[in-house]
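User: Run a structure prediction on this.
Assistant: Running it now.
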Amino acid sequence: MNIYDVIRKPLVTEKSTLEKDSKNVVAVVVNGDANKIQIKQAAEKLFNVEVKGVRTINVAGKVKRTGRNIGKRSNWKKAYISLNVGSNIDFFEL
């Protein structure tokens, strides 16, 4: 699996920004088939950082309604990447 297939996009929310500032943990959306080892290797190569650990979560898609029609959003996978001291990932560089 290609490293660009493993890590899809950064997850920028209020919670993930607070964790990034306080605990040096970055949240990203990853491929549903990727495991922790693949996520760690992809992050180290893609962002040129040292990864301490990876935690993954499978997020269930929500059931949504539009009038009388009922649909379901896709399931997706989220990873929290813990970085070593001195490593930093900045998604929005100026």
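The helical segments are 3-6, 14-23, 36-47.
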